[in-house]
Amino acid sequence: MTALPLTRLTTHIYISPPHEETDRPVLGAIVGEKSVLMVEAGNSPAHAHSFLEALARQHIARPSYAVLTHWHWDHIFGASALSRIQIFAHTKTAQAIQILAKLDWSDEAIQRRVADGKEIAFCRDCMRQEFTDSERKDIRLRHPDITFNTRIEIDLGSVSANLIHVGGDHSADSVVIFIPQDGVVFLGDCIYDAIYDTPRNYTSAKLFALLERLTALDASLYLPAHQETPISRSEFLSLAKKYKTIGSLVDQHGDDRQAILTHLSHLSIPNNEETVTLIDLFIAGRQKPVSASPISFDTPPKGNR
Predict the structure, then answer these.
(1) Is 259 helix (H, G, I), strand (E, B) or coil?
(2) Which residue, 31, 151, 158, 262, shows the most beta carbons closer than 10 Å to its own?
(3) For 23-62, how does the pLDDT look when each residue is reduced to its tens digit (9 = 90+)?
């Protein structure tokens, strides 16, 4: 791939864009007077190296720290390239990495897990684009250096990063990074649906609680990990209101789509593809989806920080 572009978003924050074909997420750098924090480890060593090279081209110091927003492969497989960088992650993320580190990532093994319902085809296809088969056979997952359960603040000098566990449907270990001095929140994938479940879904209980926590932050910009442009606060509040409205109507009417759409039309919410998709995701969440995830968080972590 060509050199990774780097954009200065705010006084202290630089970001690189996502890449859909290989499912590369947004990577970020929070630059303080004392140190730099990298947001996400990238989906491969090549991705991580490209980001570090982009920082160097802008004469930005090599990060001292990195944070993983959750355990999914596209956010952690670059961690082995982050030498001399301390990695922060939620306790559940560390638990997941212990499990993933024991898996075989060859074409044959991944295909077998997809066939057995233990992996999703989307991840398989993106991994094949990002790595050769020989590269995946040699994948070495790096474990976090520092873990936490609730939240932790990192002082970078003139700016701080607040790592906050928020959970959600997408992944129970999801963490956001809030930079109060710049009013920015790195969302990771926390606002996305449960992609490992069949069918994919949202649950009102998890999503509503997540949205309450996110809107309570004094943020002006929200950055999803797989979106080109940040979401302004007003846009995010409108999005949260729409999700809550649709989720509440599904809770009220169950799978009666027509009744839900009739109510939405009275609220001037258009009957378009996005609206119908959200309805279906909430309806699916009321069922009992089957998970293809190799990770289970049935046992809560010990301790609390």
Answers:
(1) helix
(2) 31
(3) 999 999 999 999 999 999 999 999 999 999 999 999 999 9
